[in-house]
Amino acid sequence: MPARYADVIVDITHADVDRVFTYGIPAGMDIVPGTRVSIPFGRQTTEGFVIGVKDAPGIDPDKIKDINAPLEEYPAILPQLIDLAQDMSAQTHCPLAATLRLMVPAQMRGGRIKVKTEKAAQLLVAGDALEDARKAQSRAPKRRLLLDLLSDGEVYPVSELAVLVRQPLEGLRALEQQGFVRVIDQEVLRSPYPDDAVTEPDPVLTAQQQEVLGELLPAVRSGTGQFLLYGVTGSGKTEVYIRAVHACLEAGKGAIVLIPEIVLTPQMVTWFRARFGDVAAVLHSRLSAGERFDEWRRIRRGKARVVIGARSAVFAPVDKLGILIVDEEHEGSYLSEHAPSYDAREVALSRAMREDATLLLASATPSVLSFARASRGDMMLLEMPRRVNDRPLPQVTLVDMREELRLGNKGIFSQELVQALTRCLDSGQQAMLFLNRRGYAPSVVCRKCGHVMGCPDCDVSLTYHAQDRSLHCHYCGLRLPMPGQCPECQSRYIRSIGIGTQKVEEEVAKLFPGVPLVRMDNDTTQGKDGHRTLLNRFRSGEARVMIGTQMIAKGLDFPQVTLVGVVLADLSVNLPDYRSAERTFQLLTQVAGRAGRADLPGEVVIQTYKPEHYAIAAAAQQDYRSFYHTEFARRRRDLYPPFTMMVRLLCQAKDEAAARSVSKRLLAHINELFVQYPQLRRRMLFIREDDAPIKRLMGRARAQVLMKLLVHRDSDRIIEHLTDLSRRDWPCDVTLEINPASMA
Length: 744
Ligand code: ADP
Ligand code: ZN
Ligand code: ZN
Known about the structure:
With 744 residues, the protein is of the alpha/beta class. The protein is built from 22 helices and 30 strands. The strands form seven sheets. It has a seven-stranded parallel β-sheet with strand order 11-12-10-13-14-9-15, sandwiched between helices. A six-stranded parallel β-sheet has the order 16-26-25-17-24-23, with helices on both faces. The radius of gyration is 30 Å and the shape is globular. It binds adenosine-5'-diphosphate (ADP) and zinc ion (ZN) (2 copies). One zinc ion is lined by residues 455, 457-458, 473, 475-476, 478. One zinc ion binds next to loops.
């Protein structure tokens, strides 16, 4: 008879096994909630998560099997994170196993990653016994040297001893046999940090920072409060984070700082490591599996108390959490697309409430949703409207590219931008040029018949890449050689149209021969250190112009940059998404914020064909409030979130007919539902069945039922019905998306 029983969630994410199974805990086995265990399941052995422990089985004890063994000697999941996983499972209608998985490093499951060890040695004798031991080695000077090296009784890695003694293990083994030394396998932690640690003194806070911290710190100490910090670019938000984290550590609590993209981590990590040393850990997807696992364990053991990381770091096992900070909270990368889909900001809020921690969202361009919350008083608004040391915000010039064309300039740079670049480079400063599109040209067409080269697996045009003279699909990664003639009409008159970052690079090289450039986009920053190398080339001053996509828009702080050029501001305005204006404003304001961050004043040139668009005009004025009010009014008038929810059922199948037949059936079911529950119908403002905007992706046809729901109690009931509907046995993939990050 087992002594106790465990409630176990089997680590298989299938709706059929999405329930609690009872297992026996054999006497003498140490199992607490949060422990991962090996269990017999059916005829196989599998892994499971213990979420509860009890004295009575609650069911026929003869039907209960025993746990084989715990997988780690410690509970991998903190109790508060089990609760969080349970809530998320209930809210997202995902199996509990799927949300529990978020709480542990992926490679830990299935034993795919091991603790790394190295041989180490320690002396077992001291004093007279040590003298005797030395004497016993009279004819083995190497062993005597080893005894001397170990004489302080510390544990020494064999690799360290090897610097002074050749092949120390032999000698150590002999000493071990004589009983003088112990050789052990010692755990080593893989470290993701390069040896570029810097230490800097704490700066004197600005008046603004002091004011904000005056509100924030008392809340941090008492473990309360939800704040939105609206601080313009260069207002010194990072220093606010650092001081708040300090206050946490002083109060014996830990902190999590979420940052949107990995390009920011070198800088943010450097700053945090300089101030917090080894107490800071970093979690992001570019770490090797081993590094990630070891960082995670440093956090789990409480050795690291400050975690800096991307979206999923919101689940970091920080016990006694004091503050959760979300930097650049407006960023789309806080939404996780694949199931279990979640919004890291919402998870942060729920964690903060549950664990009595402070929540701090921060941005120079807060999301419309967060600013609306703060305006309603659901969060406290903190403001830093001025830059550090009252440095002016950069001077922005809007250039109407239609006018340039009329003046006969067919190039991609306006007169203003060329002049500004010349001035900037002549005076020895640096410039950044932004264009949110990688590659050389976004499409390639036949001038004779108009055929556009498209991806055979996706319903999108192929981008021309100059380096390898080939066509790339930016959705599925396919690469094709640039055709010599049109596949439709065999004409040889094929041209690329439009511009990407490679083209910008080429043009700058033509205009300013010999000026060293760096280009940062997804094509140049592969690999763990890809970003770091390019950033360092620019930071050191070796490169004078940085060209890049949205990757360079955010967070970067280069004091020598005095000019920012936006090559074409309109790209994101034209997207078929209710957030396109918001994204455009954010991107332009953020990128403009890269200029003039130190003592030299900054200048920004924004080129556009739509200077009158309110998002572009407001960005040029760097006027967040004016943008917010226009956008908020538009959302209310046109009934977009936060007033409504955009919901869709996405159907993906091999061929179009299969996908469309399922989406049509889904629509029919929803209409039946409304016949049954007429009051729900009133919450549905819009419903339409159609192909998805991108009809084909990675070889699969996509169809959708798109809906707009009024935010209301009843809409939750509709969502429940839709969830059930999506889970039925359809002949193709059906996923339910609520306010998805991409509507494509
Ligand atoms: P933000 O995130 O608000 O855009 P940062 O945190 O990057 O701004 O700070 C902008 C610059 O100001 C950085 O170079 C930072 O080191 C500097 N800075 C921040 N606070 C202070 C301060 N109190 N005194 C001097 N310099 C500061
Ligand atoms: Zn053709
Ligand atoms: Zn493709």
